[in-house]
Write a structure and sequence with these properties.
Chain lengths: ~280, ~400
């Protein structure tokens, strides 16, 4: 590439890059800085990461909720995406619309709607009780089940879209060839289609897991104070107990956890291929 | 505190330093209630606005963008909304009539960070601030407010526990045990009953923050009124863990009301003002006991170098101790009068709803803001901060 052309590219991305530096990287550096200077300089904030029972428990809760959300979401998303590749044009448009519609709805509205549906005297429990399936209301919300339902619902489009995008690139001829060579439908799927859709699965997994890590509103509303994830604890440290050192330390660790997750995946697969850059 | 942090506090998160005071949350809640009542036309029937127009107070109320004192003026800052008119009617107009000093009620909110910034930059525009017991202790520690002159302000005219060196109570409010009588066979009478899920089945609600909740837990653990403070946090958190599977937490006052209204909970530890609204809205199904209620107070503070001068501000606080003025505020907003003598002026049919009424007051614990602000000995945390962390953990574990 001639150097003048290269300079041109740099000039084109300069405004976006500048905005990122000023409004994103710089505040981030400040957060990092606070985590090693508040309340006094040193690494004491990071020590509590290992010695503090409350913090370790909240990390485990966060991890547990994120892993469960990711596994359930990617599995459900895969099924939806697969269905979208085999149904007719009209149905596909309808399905896509439903997926996008839930993506466009405010997370707050969705969380409140789930509370209305799932609570003790909500539609679902009343319905189940009136047809005699259960005698007393199931505890579906304001606990981990509620959080998982809400989070999976929120993340589903984020899983469906990359998986679907990947699946549309898989040539149907390959499946036909496998069938023609005598493979059963299940075998053709497991040995041909599934491996080919791996990049989509990985992309969806990364997206969902990384989003889940910092999730805030859904756990706060559907967990009813009973499921505390790391972002809620950061809020409490900032706003209520005024432990800025601890809050910035946890934010920093969260950030690096995301980097770590991405790094791990990059080491396993080719990220550029996953996100369609090649 | 680093410069960076205080800058953030002032510019980005003006509320950060202020969330520590319950009175702040409570006051905002009162305003929400009053706005709601006003919308339903319930405050109007008291001739609220007519009275204001009569004394010419409406023109003064609610100066946008924050009031600035002129000569012969006194600026009182509270949390705005209907509280502006209510304070003007209850406290402002009588003071003006007696002294000729105009009272301006500024509804922009006495944020602690703002009071501190005003005093430290030498640009004080407020004379009297409406904060709370915990805020008073924080501001006192920061050295930005004046000691109350008890030769002007009468210690006899305020409930004993809330005449602090640097602040004096202007109203009372309580955390009480509210319950839905329709859905329980017998009425719960104590926090021990509240914790007894076998005898009183159904979900309960506790606040998202520990203030007022850990005192109830101590009562449930069998401690007497005198043994609550200093709070044994291990014991209290143990009790919280015991109950947590039957608990839904409330964040805002309206949420606590909502949980009762939708029938999700049968009992709760909530603010008396919200229980009062529930009682009315649900035709008496929801009621409460004052027994083992946890009472606390809103307080007046005077910033250092206030524009109208110490004398005038003290005189205002003394004037607002008048029992009838406090009853006026009780009627308009629901704040319990802080002057014990006011209970005689509360209309007979409202006495049961007044936290400071002697027969109600004697049943309650007065919350000890000093304990909350004291060092816990763990790290550099106050008891308040430590309790918040442990409570979050106990509730979610």
């Amino acid at each position: 590439m001639p150097s003048s052309l290269r300079l041109g590219y740099w000039l084109l991305i300069a405004p976006a890059l500048g905005a990122m530096l000023v409004f994103y990287v710089w505040p981030l550096v400040q957060v990092l800085w606070l985590s090693v200077t508040e309340p006094y300089p040193g690494l004491q904030n990071y020590e509590s990461l290992f010695g503090n029972r409350v913090i370790s428990r909240i990390w485990w809760t966060t991890l547990e909720v994120c892993v469960l959300t990711t596994v359930i979401t990617v599995m459900l998303g895969y099924i939806v995406a697969y269905a979208m590749t085999i149904v007719g044009e009209g149905q596909r448009t309808g399905m896509m619309l439903c997926v996008l519609l839930s993506l466009w709805l405010s997370v707050l509205i969705r969380a409140f709607a789930w509370v209305m549906l799932l609570r003790g005297n909500g539609v679902i429990n009343e319905g189940l009780m009136s047809i005699g399936v259960v005698d007393e209301p199931l505890r579906l919300v304001r606990n981990q089940i509620g959080v998982l339902i809400g989070m999976v619902h929120f993340m589903l489009p984020l899983a469906v879209l990359p998986i679907y995008a990947n699946m549309t690139g898989i040539q149907g001829r390959l499946i036909s060839a496998a069938r023609g060579l005598g493979a059963s439908p299940a075998r053709a799927f497991l040995l041909v289609f599934l491996p080919l859709s791996k990049p989509g699965i990985i992309a969806a997994t990364i997206l969902v897991f990384v989003f889940s890590l910092g999730f805030f509103i859904t756990p706060a509303l559907l967990g009813g104070g009973r499921v505390v994830m790391i972002s809620e604890y950061i809020r409490v440290s900032f706003e209520e107990t005024l432990r800025w050192g601890q809050a910035t330390m946890l934010s920093t660790v969260l950030l690096f956890a995301v980097f770590l997750a991405l790094g791990l995946v990059a080491w396993l697969v080719d990220l550029r291929q996953v996100f369609g850059a090649r | 505190m680093s410069i960076l942090k205080s800058q953030y506090e002032k510019d980005l998160y003006p509320e950060i330093a202020d969330t520590i005071d319950d009175a702040t949350d409570f006051q905002r809640d009162l305003i929400e209630i009053a706005a709601d009542r006003h919308a339903k036309g319930e405050i109007d029937r008291r001739g609220f606005l007519t009275a204001l127009a009569g004394i010419g107070a409406l023109g003064l109320a609610g100066v946008p963008g924050g009031a600035k004192a002129a000569a012969g003026e006194l600026v009182v800052v509270n949390w705005g909304g209907p509280a502006v008119d209510a304070y003007q009617a209850a406290f402002g107009a009588p003071f003006t009539a007696a002294t000729g000093t105009k009272v301006v009620i500024d509804g922009t909110g006495p944020l602690l960070s703002k009071i501190r910034a005003m005093v430290e930059s030498g640009a004080v525009t407020w004379d009297v601030c409406d904060t709370g017991a915990a805020s008073t202790l924080v501001l006192e520690k920061a050295g930005v407010i004046q000691a109350i002159d008890y030769s002007v302000v009468d210690k006899e005219k305020v409930v004993l526990d809330y005449a602090y060196d640097y602040g004096v109570a202007n109203y009372l409010f309580s955390y009480i045990l509210a319950y839905n009588a329709k859905r329980l066979d017998t009425a719960p009478e104590s926090w021990a009953d509240f914790w007894d899920t076998a005898a009183f089945p159904g979900m309960r609600t506790l606040r998202k923050q520990p203030n007022g909740m850990i005192e109830a837990a101590m009562f449930a653990a069998g401690k007497s009124m005198e043994e609550i403070y200093p709070i044994d946090l291990d014991l209290a958190m143990g009790k919280i863990k015991e109950l947590r599977d039957d608990v839904i937490v409330w964040g805002s006052g309206s949420q606590s009301q909502e949980l009762f209204r939708t029938g999700e909970v049968v009992m709760g530890n909530i603010w008396h003002t919200r229980a009062n609204l529930l009682n009315r809205d649900m035709n008496g199904d929801v009621t409460w006991t004052w027994n083992q209620g946890i009472a606390t107070a809103g307080m007046w503070n005077i910033p250092n170098n206030n524009p109208a001068g110490t004398e005038s501000a003290m005189a205002f606080i003394a004037s607002a101790q008048d029992p009838q003025q406090q009853v006026e505020l009780f009627t308009l907003m629901g704040n319990g009068p802080a002057n014990p003598a006011a209970s005689d002026f509360v209309p007979e049919d409202r006495r049961w709803a007044n936290p400071g009424q002697p027969e109600n007051w004697s049943l309650q614990l007065t919350q000890d803001a000093r304990w909350y602000q004291a060092e816990s000995g763990k790290g550099d945390l106050t008891n308040d901060a430590l309790a918040r962390e442990l409570y979050l953990d106990a509730m979610s574990g």
